[in-house]
Amino acid sequence: MDIPVLPCLRQERQFSKPTAVFIPETPSFLGEHIRKKRIEKGLFQTDLARLFNVTHDCITYWENNRSKPQVQHYPDIIEFLGYFPFELDISTFEGKIKAYRYINGLSQKNFAKNMGIDPATVTRWEEGKGRGPKRKEIEAFLSDNLENKSKLSD
């Protein structure tokens, strides 16, 4: 027995024209730096997600300033951008700590563990407060390790 089949159903779908992509001329936050470089390189957000080993949603959130990347992703982001996107005064102790942490992808807790100090001390130092017996030793270490400031300049 034959079953009749409809000859051909014609379906039409309408798509809206894609909106223009906003490319920030002068990026003001980290996500805009990422978006600008991604578009300049002709990459999709999924390409970046694979590169940074995060989800597509993470990239979307970063680019729209809905969230910030975790510090562990900073070294890969700095390498991708080809410059240091953070405005830090590395002539100060607190700026040196943050710059070192960002370049190496270290949280305050991991930095403190590596330096043999309490994480609360790192927090105070980054706020420009506190002294501590190891401050001079760590400041000398940071100065030596941040000598190559080419990473820190745009």
Q: What do these coordinates show?
A:
- It is a single chain.
- By secondary structure, this protein is mostly helical.
- The chain has two domains: 30-81, lambda repressor-like DNA-binding domains (434 Repressor (Amino-terminal Domain), Orthogonal Bundle); 93-152, Orthogonal Bundle (434 Repressor (Amino-terminal Domain)).
- It has eight helices and no strands.
- It has helices spanning 30-40, 45-52, 56-63, 74-81, 93-104, 108-115, 119-126, 135-145.
For the structure shown, list the relevant keywords:
single chain; 154 residues; 434 Repressor (Amino-terminal Domain); mainly alpha; 0% strand
End-to-end CA span: 76 Å
Major sheet description: none
Q: What is the total domain count?
A: 2
Helix content: 40-55%
Concise structural overview:
The chain has 154 residues and is an all-alpha fold. It has helices at residues 30-40, 45-52, 56-63, 74-81, 93-104, 108-115, 119-126, 135-145. It is elongated, with a radius of gyration of 23 Å.
Ordered list of secondary-structure elements with their pairings:
Elements: H1 30-40, H2 45-52, H3 56-63, H4 74-81, H5 93-104, H6 108-115, H7 119-126, H8 135-145
